[in-house]
Amino acid sequence: MRAPSLLLLLLALTSCASQKAVNSIDPNTSTEALRAKVVADIALATQNYDVALPKLIEKAQFWHDAEAAQTAVRIAEQRKDWIRSLQAARVWAAIDPENDLAHSVVVLGLARSGQVDALAPALVRLWSAARPKGFQRYIQIVLQLTEQTGNEVMLEALRKIPTSSDAYVASQVAMMEMLRKAGQDDAAVAISKALQQRYPDHPAVILERAYQTQNHLVAGRDLLKAFRKHPEHLVLGIEACRQLLQASPTDVIRACLEQAKPGTRNHIVITKGCLIAADERKQCLDEVMAKAPGNHDLLVMAAGMALDNQNAPQAERYLLQVLAEAPHHQQARWLLAHVYRNSEDRYLKDFAVSLFDSISTPSLVKSARIAAAKMLANDGYYQQAISRLRSLKDADPATQLELARVAAKLLSETPDGRQYKMALDEEWQKQPDDLFLFLLALTLAEHQELTTIWRHYPGLLSPDQAPVRQLVLDILMEKDAHEAVIALTGQVLKHHPDNTLYQYERAIAHFKLGHYTQAEQALRTLLRKSPEDGTYLNALGYILAHANKKLDEAEQLLHKAHSLNPKDGYVLDSLGWLYFRLKQYEKAESYLKKALKQDPNPIVEAHLAAVYWMTDRMDQAKKLFKKAYHAKPNDPVLREIIRDLSPDLFNSLSKK
Predict the structure, then answer these.
(1) What is residue 359's DSSP assignment?
(2) Cα maximum dimension of the chain
(3) What is the Cα–Cα distance from 304 to 537, expressed in whole angstroms?
(4) How far is CA 555 from the centre of its chain?
């Protein structure tokens, strides 16, 4: 299973606070609007996403319901239905024009489809929505979206933003960062020089200049000067503090003294100047804080900067000052726990665990429990460590799984882990509905145990357990327990025969086990319902290519999938494997290298290794085969590829 993108995680955490649920219906409401609402709500509740997705978009349009549009975006992204994702995002952005996330999805959709002319004005609208949160917010969003879509389209769109636009300078800064990451340093430098000449006093340019300099002292002074001129941009002041904090007095003095002979007047002057410069750090921090007297958050930021600079005493003082006035300040407790976690004072170290335990802010609580558990485990208190991880019983299933994975790692690192695992298994048998214990058992289970262990969680097949079922499926797929996937999806489809997600997962599991006919039939059924679905097109094309049959049809399917999403690493991999089957090895290698760059994973590595093998590059092939096999030794497709090409190599890898 592909890991969720940052976009999906953001969508999962973001709510449309500006939109209120419709509590009463106007009797004059049109039939079309009522139909869209009722069908969307019921289809969503019954997980009939084929129906729910288009109706959610209609509902959003009729009822000006941003939450419906956001839900449609999330479903479309999960299904890789890029067309409907863009459609829903446009509706969402029209309803809630100040929501920068909605505009982000519009930009993402346009970039995916290569609509450069529409992308440039969409970026300007994104700037307008993100601007109240600062120019950095816009730049970060653009860079994150570029990671998902590639540089070419985004760069072309950014170049089309006119110099008269308020978004121009921030867009140019984003371009610089993109070009640097792509290794085009000369182009980035050219943009930087142009901005420095034309917009030297723009806050974004000043900040960019500070990021690029290696002299933290100079950068800090420049930023402080800019902050005095633009006090509304607090980020300039905060970054000035950070830069000056990074300018360690010892390092500055040592560097400057190297420029003068000891004992000379020049030496004395430089030494004095360096000490004054070191004092500027505190002066800068005090000046920024003076703009917001009593601002606990700013004090906490300063403490964080001090911690980054390994100045724990200064960080402790700031944090104690905050907690003396606001004892429940969560961020201050969080950072103070980090200050004390490595303390040589046993009492302060124990207090760090208490501080982590006291964290209740949703965005920090998971990390706090994990930190407390690791501290306890390091001291040998495994039972207490696991109890910390189990304490979030009301957490969502995904969080429970993450905590279970941490627990599994802690148990695997202790000599007594196996014995304690047995005790936890006994406890789970007494409390079979404990989700954490179930997920822990599933995570720690041996491959042969996975076929039956999922059956022991009560109510797994009930409608309200869909999120848990998906996690279980992900674990089973991750562990290559494809027999268990077929069994679980078969049970679910008895009650929800139209659920396309489980039909697809079942088809892939059949393929992994070599049941090519069943997999092909299932995917053809899905394609009859959704002939433009890139995921289904790619899966069927790949299966035909792997089975080495109907290669002409496979080529048509895969090129259609590629036209829908040219940057999809899975499609590039499938095309590479198709051309391997067609013995067009040069073409295969080109696609597979692109796929490896987009989506590196063991299967792509095995495909590329097969090309190397067939073109007499044995050393490269063996090296890549070994890497892929060690990453996924139980994957039947990967094992088949190696075994077919070299039984001897496969046997040697299997023995190891």
Answers:
(1) -
(2) 92
(3) 49
(4) 32
